[in-house]
Design goal:
Blueprint (H helix, E strand, L loop, with lengths): L3 E4 L5 H10 L4 E4 L3 H11 L3 E6 L7 H5 L6 E4 L9 H6 L3 E3 L6 H17 L1 H9 L18 E4 L3 H11 L5 E4 L10 E2 L3 H7 L2 E4 L13 H7 L4 E4 L8 H9 L5 E4 L18 E3 L8 H19 L9
Parallel strand pairs: 1-2, 1-3, 3-4, 4-5, 6-7, 6-9, 7-8, 9-10, 10-11, 11-12
Helix pairs in contact: 5-7, 8-9
Amino acid sequence: MKPALLVLNLQVPAHLQQMAQTFPDFEVIYAPEADQCEAAIAAHGARVQCVCTIGSTGLSAAQMQRMPKLSLVCAMGAGYENIDVAYAKAHGIAVGNGAGTNDECVADHAMGLMIAAVRGIVRYDKATRAGTWRSALPLPPNVSGKRLGIVGLGTIGAKIAKRAAAFDMPVGYHNRKPREGVSHQYFDSLLALAAWADVLLVATLGGAGTSHLINAEVLDALGEKGFLVNIARGSVVDTQALAEAVRSGRVAGAGLDVYESEPLPPQDLLDLDAVVLTPHVAGWSPEAVQNSVDRFIANMRRHLDGQPLVSPI
């Protein structure tokens, strides 16, 4: 029987066909739901050689143990927080991701969320449809000139900073250490960055190390005129703390593409018109998804040819 390529994340038929045509010696097994994944591993685990997944779905050590021929795990996006990388590397399994494939799309969406939250675009749209004229509404703040604090100035964070320059926004950032060749102001303390910023934008990695990094203390430092934007992972923001901060006026509002309850909506935030929500689509566009599929295929092709991955972890 053919070796198997197990695909655990949502795909359109054309992309599954692209994978099958590129690797005709493999059977492509599509199992995007948890029960389908379990059934696929139970039935075909012995011949699974490669796995395509995403960071939020991941691949656990227990799952890898049931696939004795597994030699490659790739996340299609940049995130890989739920892939047991340590186990994979300890057992000779190559691990890659799709770093850089959707950066432009995520940066675009981050700017959209920021503008929508700061300018109140969603709530003003609702007011207009209800017949309310501007004289009955509060003045929305400028975006231009606001101080943008980026939590996690990686590739995506840097692209957001580049876009912010067009809005004359001073940029500060917090990383574990300063980035070489970066002129933006570095803050070695997240609290100090939050206190400085008008908009705090989260672009850091997910995972246990950043769980609830944005908590009540950080939100209080951001302050009553500050806005939070999150295009990273829902786990980074304490949803209940954010809801309480917005509801009490301790922060002005937020724009979120990700949240802890995914795929269910964040119930604590649904009644807050100062919060703009989108369903984890920052990295989704026809161009970005095609780039991600192409990168997975390139990583798998190089792996099968005995060459280093295009984007190894």
